[in-house]
Amino acid sequence: MSVQTEKADSVPAAGVRKDDAPSGGPTAPRRERAGSSAPYLLLVPALLVTAVLLGYPLVKNGMLSFQNLNPRQLILHLTEWNGIDNYKEVLGGSDFWRVVERSVLFTAANVVLIMVIGMMVGLLLARLGKKMRLLLMLGLVLAWAMPMIAATTVYQWLFAQRFGVVNYVLDSLGWHSMADFNWTSSQLSTFSLVTLVIVWQSIPFVAINLYAASTTIPKELYEAASLDGANSWKSFTLVTLPFLKPFLLATTFLEVIWVFKSFAQLFAINGGGPDRLTETLPVYAFVEGVGNQHFGMGAAISFLTIIVLLAMTGYYLRTVLKQEEDEL
Question: How far apart are CA 191 and CA 195, in angstroms?
Answer without folding.
Answer: 6
